[in-house]
Specification:
The chain is mainly alpha-helical. Among the domains are: about 80 residues, 434 Repressor (Amino-terminal Domain) (Orthogonal Bundle); about 170 residues, 3-Layer(aba) Sandwich (Rossmann fold), CATH 3.40.50.300; about 110 residues, no CATH class; about 100 residues, Tetratricopeptide repeat domain (Serine Threonine Protein Phosphatase 5, Tetratricopeptide repeat); about 80 residues, Tetratricopeptide repeat domain (Serine Threonine Protein Phosphatase 5, Tetratricopeptide repeat); about 70 residues, no CATH class. It is built from 47 helices and ten strands. A five-stranded parallel sheet has the order 2-3-4-1-5, with helices on both faces. A three-stranded antiparallel sheet has the order 8-10-9. About 0% of the residues have low confidence.
Length: about 1050
């Protein structure tokens, strides 16, 4: 039971041996299994207790009384006499023996120092200026209050106190530094302070022997001190050590007190106001901000990479000063030659840069940080070592809470460590689930768990945050805003590492609890917009659990992956693509532990294909293979099977055309309507695709009817002001526009949108489509507002690709509003933001083309020509000169050449473009007609009338085919042909007048008497009359 005790020293006097033996008897009767357990119970260091039980030296009365209290032995005259006799015998023994004592028993010089260890300070303390200024102001302030620096272990409390000590010493203050983690060290340190400030030796001896109050004596002299002082008690994580008897440490009777004579500073992990009282100022020492954390790394490591790399590593370490110090120290040592032989297989894997360190941290975990700790001497106390080890420092707080009887604290931290370092709603913590999995005794009451959470917050292991307002929450969760718990990234990683080291049965109990909590969290529909605020809150936790869950328990794994699949649905429907591929890859890797035909593994195989859209034969075959197995395993109408069937039909549409795909999509619509209902988001996806297929095969009336039916179903079942209803209206209006029913489409849309209140639950794609329709209706200002709202949402979800696409639409919108300068500035910033794209990227070239066009619009022709030429040269590397994309570039550039006075070059270019487009897409195509018209106008401008007439006649023939004889474009071309024929002498003045008379009547119908075409023709006729 006491195997770790050495025999009592037989060469010591009998009274000394007697005291040691009696203390050992108390330890045995109290059934302490080891010396270390006794030391913990007595709140003393193990070395102090070991010395007291060895008999070589007589312990102080305080040490004796602490051991007796830990053993439930009452203090009495018997023990006082025993201690007094041993002390007297020790004095005589030492006098008699002199230097003849063995070396280890001779009196040794005192090594307890109360000077601050200034040498431990870094070259510069980063990110604490405001706090230090505030603390130093207290030094000169006569207002008495204890200054308590509290925070997470490793957050830099001691560094702040040391910097304050340095400043205080430089300003002439007396500075005392006391270690507060053990009672005997604290008491010894305070005795040294008493002697330092001039307390007579006899008073010190009397008080420290227990015959008078030592704290009262000390503070009587500190209050009366002539010289300003700073008393710092470091590492006071067990506040009771500072208290007098059973009182509170902040009640003014213990070892730390407020005083007008100086400032008392305490560093501690405990930040509860109840502990420190109302005469204490509490300062929460936070982790460092990003810039300060990066600076700290650079201070320590020097040239280990650029500032951006330092910031990235600092972010990975959560800005925690202790972690930053170890990382920086490791890299500094690496620069001096440490780690030169580090290899992985045959590959050199030296860690000498910020990037390399971050990469290695992902492999080695927090153990790598502990390598930044310099080698320690063998005499270093174990507890001091644990304080410095990242992998152990926060476990000490849990040890302490456990000794205080707060046992649920460790269990809670194990569970919370499985989640992300992000706000976790407290309402997800379900005691019944914890008890059912054996993590809590059945007798545990809610108050015990509440106390544990409060203690973890008081120790700064967890922080409390509040969720934003949420539109919906799962059943069993309170009304928002919700209280949430947040753990520091490294605390959670360290605790999670200990979970992984647990026996498999204990690990499984933890993870089953986590999985059940996650099931509750993911119980509301991820596809519905009103739930997305909640899903955004829990998204990081689902990702964290998926990444860490072990795969040895199939039921557990399936439960977690099912929650992950529901999260995937949220990310897709809410259009949040950031990191979605990594998330799916993690789930697929986990699912490999399941059978090949397991439904969950099949579902994830589908999601993997879904994220690699190619719309080709390969993708179609991949979906077909999954669909065949799902149909066999789950049945044709299972919701998962129908998801795959929909995607297969969608790709089939692109590969083989709408005629083949339409019947398959119709089957999916019918099945989903039956299984899920007509307005389920999945059903509506299929109904929309089916309508588009119907339109593609020429059944446009049926397509519009289907979309109108879906709108009516949504209005009936979802209500008129639902975001999904609006999205369906948008699809209907687009179809009506496509069919040329512009007035009806405009009326349909205006009827709906004017009644629809501004809403935050519209998706970015819906907003963008609304803006497109508004633009088609020339409601440009409203369209601009919708584009900007969509861009804001896309920025929030980090959908860079779609953000760029909508940015291009906004640029065109600004141009339509003639906001040319704003459009130029916007597209310039857009181009600059595309640094990640290659020079020949199609989007980047389109943006540069838009920029060139805008420069043309503001008459900056030389710049416009240079930009369009540059784009054309890049296009020419990939495409031939007659490719449709290149022809579009050439067309625009030709107009700029005209403005620069290079008319011959421009006319020749327009002729080539028009001819090539007529061959490529046909004379009736919009682009071919436009190019032919532009070429004709250029020829007219150069008086090449016969050539111009030929192009105008070609243009007229195409327009008649497309529009019919009454269209305004046809009338304009006829006018230009008439004028040209007259100028060439092919028509007489009478013929011209007859043609103009007919055209004028039609133009007046279209444009009114003051229309530009009407006034132009009348002016031409007037000139003809004058001639």
């Amino acid at each position: 039971m006491t195997r770790d005790l050495d025999p009592v020293n037989k060469s010591a006097p009998e009274p000394m041996q007697a005291l040691a033996e009696k203390l050992r008897d108390c330890m045995r009767k109290a059934e302490y299994p080891s010396l270390r357990e006794l030391a913990k119970g007595a709140n003393l260091s193990a070395s102090t207790v070991s010395e007291a039980l060895a008999g070589s030296r007589v312990p102080s009365w305080l040490t004796v009384s602490s051991i007796l209290k830990a053993c439930d032995v009452q203090l009495s005259q018997y023990w006082a006499k025993l201690h007094k006799d041993a002390k007297a015998a020790e004095t005589q023994w030492r006098k008699a023996s002199g230097t003849g004592l063995p070396a280890d028993l001779r009196p040794q010089p005192g090594t307890m120092s109360i000077r601050p260890p200034i040498g431990d300070l870094p070259s510069r303390v980063r990110g604490r200026d405001e706090l230090l200024d505030q603390l130093f102001a207290e030094v000169a302030n006569t207002r008495s209050a204890i200054q308590v620096l509290h925070g997470l272990g490793g957050c830099g409390k001691t560094t702040v106190a040391l910097e304050l000590a340095r400043r205080g010493a430089e300003s002439g203050c007396s500075v005392f530094w006391i270690n507060g983690d053990q009672r005997d060290q604290l008491v010894t340190g305070m005795r040294e302070v008493a002697r330092e400030i001039g307390v007579p030796d006899e008073d010190v001896d009397e008080s420290w022997s227990g015959r008078a109050s030592a704290p009262d004596l000390l503070w009587r002299y500190l209050d009366a001190a002539e010289r300003q002082w700073i008393l710092i008690v470091d590492n006071a994580d067990k506040p009771d050590v500072l208290a007098s008897g059973s009182s509170r440490p902040g009640d003014g009777t213990g070892w730390v007190r407020p005083s007008s004579g100086g400032v008392t500073v305490v560093t501690t992990r405990v930040g509860s106001p109840d502990v420190w009282g109302h005469r204490a100022d509490l300062h929460h020492v936070e982790v460092l901000e990003a810039d300060d954390a990066a600076d700290m790394l650079i201070d320590l490591a020097g040239h280990a990479g650029d500032r951006a790399d330092a910031r990235e590593l600092a972010d990975r370490l959560g800005g925690l000063p202790l972690a930053l110090m170890y990382a920086g120290t490791y890299l500094r040592r690496a620069a001096r030659g440490a780690g030169l032989l580090r290899r992985t297989g045959l590959r050199s894997d030296r860690i000498n840069t910020f990037v390399a360190y971050q990469r290695a941290l992902g492999d080695a975990g927090l153990a790598l940080l502990d390598h930044g700790l310099n080698n320690m001497g063998s005499t270093e106390d174990l507890e001091r070592l644990h304080r410095k080890l990242i992998s152990r420092t926060w476990e000490m707080s849990l040890d302490l809470l456990e000794t205080q009887g707060i046992r649920p604290a460790r269990v809670l931290m194990r569970l919370i460590s499985c989640f992300a370092p992000a706000p976790l709603p407290v309402d997800l913590i379900d005691m019944d689930v914890m008890t059912r999995n054996g993590l809590l005794p059945e007798t545990t009451i809610p108050e015990e768990v509440d106390t544990a959470i409060e203690a973890l917050v008081d120790f700064n292991i967890l922080d409390v945050a509040e969720s934003r307002e949420l539109t919906a929450v799962p059943e069993g969760v309170g009304d928002p805003p919700l209280p949430c718990l947040v753990g520091h990234r490294l605390v959670l990683e360290a605790t999670a590492a200990r979970v992984r080291a647990l026996p498999e049965a204990e690990q499984t109990a933890v993870w089953r609890t986590v999985a059940t909590w996650l099931e509750a969290a993911t119980s509301i529909e991820p596809e519905e917009a009103w739930n997305w605020d909640w899903w955004q809150l829990i998204d990081p936790h689902i990702r964290a659990v998926v990444a860490a869950v072990p795969d040895h328990d199939e039921d557990l794994l399936v439960s977690v992956l099912t929650s992950g699949l529901r999260c995937f649905a949220f990310l897709v429907f809410a259009e949040r693509p950031a990191d979605i591929k990594n998330f799916v890859d993690a789930m697929v890797n986990k699912a490999n532990a399941l059978g090949k035909d397991h439904p969950t593994r099949l579902a994830l195989s589908h999601r993997e294909v879904f994220l690699k859209p190619s719309h080709d034969q390969r993708e179609m075959n991949d979906y077909r293979s999954i669909l065949q197995v799902q149909t066999r395993v789950l049945g044709a109408d299972d919701p998962e099977t129908l998801i795959t069937h929909h995607n297969w039909a969608h790709v089939l549409w692109h590969v083989e055309g709408a005629e083949t795909a339409e019947q398959h999509m119709r089957h999916v619509v019918q099945a989903r309507t039956k299984v899920l209902g007509p307005v389920n988001p999945y059903t509506l996806l299929s109904r929309n695709d089916w309508a588009k297929m119907l339109a593609d095969v020429g059944r446009q009336e049926e397509a519009e009817a289907e979309l109108r039916a879906s709108v009516n179903d949504c209005r009936r079942d979802r209500g008129g002001h639902d975001a999904v209803t609006l999205a369906q209206v948008v699809q209907l209006v687009k179809m009506m526009n496509k069919r040329g029913h512009y007035d009806a489409a405009k009326a349909e849309y205006r009827h709906f949108i004017d009644k629809y209140p501004p809403a935050s639950d519209l998706s970015a794609s819906t907003r963008s489509e609304i803006a497109d329709i508004l633009g088609d209706q020339k409601r440009y200002a409203e369209a601009e507002a919708e584009y900007r709202a969509a861009l804001k949402q896309l920025l929030e979800v980090r959908d860079i690709r779609e953000h760029r696409n909508v940015s291009m639409k906004l640029t065109r919108n600004l141009r339509a509003q003639k906001k040319f300068d704003e459009a130029i500035e916007y597209v310039s910033e857009l181009i600059e933001s595309c640094e990640d794209l290659p020079a020949d990227d199609s989007f980047l070239l389109a943006a540069r083309h838009q920029y060139g066009d805008l420069l043309h619009s503001v008459e900056r022709y030389a710049e416009a020509e240079a930009e369009l030429t540059a784009v054309l040269e890049i296009r020419a590397r990939t495409f031939t000169s007659e490719d449709s994309v290149v022809l579009a570039e050439r067309h625009c550039r030709a107009h700029t050449l005209q403005r620069l006075g290079r008319r011959g070059e421009a006319t020749s270019e327009l002729g080539e473009v028009a001819g090539s487009l007529r061959k490529l897409v046909g004379a009736e195509h919009t682009r071919a007609r436009d190019a032919t018209w532009c070429h004709a106008m250029a020829l007219l401008g150069m008086d090449r009338l016969a050539e111009a007439l030929s192009e105008l006649e070609t243009c007229l023939g195409a327009e008649l085919m497309v529009f019919g004889p009454e269209h305004r474009s046809v009338l304009i071309t006829r006018r230009m042909i008439a004028e040209t024929c007259h100028k060439l002498g092919l028509w007489s003045s009478v013929q011209l007048r007859n043609e103009f008379d007919e055209l004028l009547g039609r133009f007046i119908e279209c444009d009114g008497e003051d229309g530009s075409a009407v006034t132009g023709m009348k002016a031409y006729l007037a000139r003809l009359g004058d001639e």
